[in-house]
Amino acid sequence: MKQTIKDIYLKDKRVLVRCDYNVPIKNGNILDETKIVKSLETINYLLKENCSIIIMSHLGRIKSEEDKNANSLLPIKDVLKRLLTKEIKFAPEIMSEETKNLALSLKPGEILLLENTRFLDLPEKKESTYNDDVAKFLSSLAEVFILDAFSVAHRAHTSVVGPSKYLPSALGFLVLKEQAILDELKEPVHPYTVIMGGSKVDDKLPIIKSLLPKCDNLLLSGGIANSFLYALGLNVGASLKTEDSTIIEELKNIMLEYKPKFAFPMDAVTGVSYNETINLKNINELNNDDIIKDIGSLTIQKYSQIINNSQTIFINGTMGIYEEKEFKNGTIEIFNALKNSQAKVIIGGGDTTSALNNLGFSNDFKYVLSGGGASLEYLAKDTLPGIEAISEADNIETLDL
Q1: Which residue in 78, 123, 298, 330 could disulfide with 319, CB within 3.0 to 4.6 Å?
Q2: Residue 246: Cβ within 10 Å count
Q3: The domain spanning residue 31 has which CATH number?
Q4: Cβ neighbour number for residue 288 with a 10 Å cutoff
Q5: pLDDT higher than 90, residue 88
Q6: Residues 132, 259 share a domain
Q7: Residues 147 and 392: beta-carbon distance below 8 Å
């Protein structure tokens, strides 16, 4: 059984919290503070319990020493200081005696932020590949562990699943909220529509197969839609698509089984590879050098009609390359249709949330999740490795920390 933050005794405890502060940063400035703000409910609850708090998170991907310069959590420290109106201590080296001493000497109400956990991936992957020595060290910093990062709970990384092996553990408010929202999709009010975009159908195929029996409509865009169209024998030009013959055969079988549920783009805004000439074309009129970059007006009309007739909608992905002004219209129009819909709309995190914020829809939807991949995997499997680890934390080993 999962243990929640309210089920565990926290008064005056030293608490290790795994947050998700993987936020966009440019020239040291944080472009979107949403994830940081969402972590405050758990942090403030711990402060009310007179806890001392050690926070950890990853940021970006660390493959070289140069990557460290652009992915330090130092800018997060400044934002936390402003939002919480209190000083935040910072540990530049995670695996050090100095960090351990900092953590153990924290007074009630004090907060220590650890440097990017993915710095531990150099020279060998001790974060993104589970490492028990790191798990034991992180556990030695605290008396209790709280997982409050739903968006990484689908990854069995050391900072996600490690501390619960050695510390009394619980799920934070953010994880519990997002889990509860997704649990409602187990028995959705129908008609239930799923809108899915993304680049690689290979990655999403197990999730698509798990959602199709439950939903009434599946609206596709991006590389996923291109792959299905290609499997139907249509020319999608030089657009991103799968060419794996096994996957293509599976797509054909899925479309045969669930034909009435599928909705594909009817037209597309394209750019060609050599000069980015922009055209609006019907899907069956593409040339070999066309690259699909957005959905067209016929598709917008078709998808909007389905949206208007739905009672529950889950969306993960955008309609096109919304970051480029020539190819953002499809995503904007679909967001407008969702905004004006009477349906319960759940936004599946990741790139979809970034699009909401960038295109001016950040305050228009009630149910916005932080994790894209985690949301999809939870819908497919009803659990995640990070949540499973908390459920098993009652059987923690005795460890002399």
Answers
A1: 330
A2: 9
A3: 3.40.50.1260
A4: 9
A5: yes
A6: no
A7: no
Task: Give yes or no: residues 197 and 279 share one domain.
Answer: yes
Distance CA 32, CA 313 (A): 25
- Half-sphere exposure for 207 (CA within 13 Å, toward CB): 23
Per-residue confidence band for 394, with pLDDT thresholds at 50, 70 and 90: low
3-class DSSP state of 129: coil
**Domain interval for residue 96:** 14-177+384-395
Measured distance between the N- and C-terminal CA atoms of the chain, rounded to whole angstroms: 26
Residues 138 and 225 in one domain: no
Count the domains in the chain. 2
Q: Is 54 left (phi over 0), alpha (psi -120 to 50) or beta?
A: beta
Same domain, 105 and 223: no
Residue-level pLDDT at 327: 92
Q: What is the CA radius of gyration of the chain?
A: 23
pLDDT of residue 301: 97
> Would 312 be classed as within a structural domain?
yes
Mean pLDDT of 96-103: 97
Query: Does 193 lie in the same domain as 157?
Result: no
Q: Which residues contact 156 (CB under 8 A, 6 or more apart)?
A: 130, 385, 386
Secondary structure percentages of the chain, helix, strand, coil, to 5: 45, 15, 40
| Higher-confidence position of 32 and 72 | 72
* 204 and 263 housed in the same domain: yes
Do residue 155 and residue 186 come from a single domain? no
Asked if residue 56 is part of any domain, the answer here is yes
> Exposed (0-12), middle (13-18) or buried (19+): which is 16, by Cβ within 10 Å?
buried
Judged by DSSP in three states, 353 sits in helix
According to DSSP, the β-strands at 312-316 and 278-282 are unpaired
SS3 197: coil
- For residue 163, what is the DSSP state? G
Residue 360 lies in a domain: yes
Q: Is residue 397's pLDDT more than 60? A: no
Spatial neighbors of 155 by CB under 8 A, at least 6 apart, are 128, 385, 386
Q: Cα–Cα distance between 317 and 307 in angstroms, integer?
A: 15
Per residue in 248-272, pLDDT tens? 999 999 999 999 999 999 999 997 6
Query: Is the per-residue pLDDT at 277 higher than 70?
Result: no
3-state secondary structure (DSSP) of residue 88: coil
Phi, psi of 252 (to 5 degrees): -60, -45
Q: Do 37 and 158 lie in a common domain?
A: yes
Lowest mean pLDDT among 21-35, 88-102, 264-278: 264-278
